[in-house]
Amino acid sequence: MMRITVLTGAGISAESGIRTFRAADGLWEEHRIEDVATPEGFRRDPVLVHRFYNQRRADAARAQPNAAHKALARLAKSHDVTLITQNVDDLHERGGSPEVIHMHGSLLGALCANCGHRWPATLVMRSLDLCPNCGKPATRPDIVWFGEIPYHMERIWAAVENTDIFAAIGTSGQVYPAAGLAQHARRNGAETIEMNLTPSAVSSDFLQHLTGPATQVVPAWVDRLCD
């Protein structure tokens, strides 16, 4: 069975109405990245950070999986697929994918900044929420912020090293280590393909390029693989 590793980024969820991570002006939903997506920002103003992610969680709950999410779920039924996402929404799961590696965490998770305990997030989280393990008011979103190490990297590198096809969908190629996965896959003999509205910052690492909306190019690509 063909082994396929897929990396998805903000572009695949954008067509479900979830805004991409960073606008051209460097702001995210009118906030500086440093204020809402770093450990230092959380220490300075945990109330702001929780308010920001509560809104992201509500937006994600309203969004619906699109044709690209559903196509990848269909691909997993006929091939050995490792699905890695930089996104923190659960649209892949709701689209039918059986297993998703969230390298940047998930809006559905809560994390204790004091003891490291994890538990399911409520729709609205507050800075004074107590950790169910240690009892400290140190609750934060289980999101990998700038300056932190992405999750599941050993598993991700192993999948990339042993894959036949590596596909990146809707990624900017600006955030490492995710941006280095295509080069690693190609170095290990994989076929590499990029699906994006525009070429990414690491477009030269890909042998093939499919340009267009994810809801169009991903289902068409899956159709070819499943024929």
Automatic annotation (TrEMBL):
It comes from the Bacteria. One of its GO terms (molecular function) is NAD+ binding. Keywords: Cytoplasm, Metal-binding, NAD, Transferase, Zinc. GO terms for cellular component: cytoplasm. Its EC number is 2.3.1.286. The active site is at H104 (proton acceptor). It catalyses: N(6)-acetyl-L-lysyl-[protein] + NAD(+) + H2O = 2''-O-acetyl-ADP-D-ribose + nicotinamide + L-lysyl-[protein]; N(6)-succinyl-L-lysyl-[protein] + NAD(+) + H2O = 2''-O-succinyl-ADP-D-ribose + nicotinamide + L-lysyl-[protein]. Its main location: cytoplasm. It is found in: Cytoplasm. Residues 1-227 form the Deacetylase sirtuin-type domain. NAD(+) binds at residues 9-28, 86-89, 170-172, 196-198, 214. CDD domains: SIRT5_Af1_CobB (cd01412). Zn(2+) binds at C112, C115, C131, C134. It holds the Pfam family SIR2. It is an enzyme of class 2 (transferase). Binds 1 zinc ion per subunit. 2 residues (Tyr-53 and Arg-56) present in a large hydrophobic pocket are probably involved in substrate specificity. They are important for desuccinylation activity, but dispensable for deacetylation activity. Belongs to the sirtuin family. Class III subfamily. PANTHER family: NAD-DEPENDENT PROTEIN DEACYLASE, NAD-DEPENDENT PROTEIN DEACYLASE SIRTUIN-5, MITOCHONDRIAL-RELATED. NAD-dependent lysine deacetylase and desuccinylase that specifically removes acetyl and succinyl groups on target proteins. Modulates the activities of several proteins which are inactive in their acylated form. This is NAD-dependent protein deacylase. It comes from Paracoccus halophilus. The lineage of its organism: Bacteria, Pseudomonadati, Pseudomonadota, Alphaproteobacteria, Rhodobacterales.
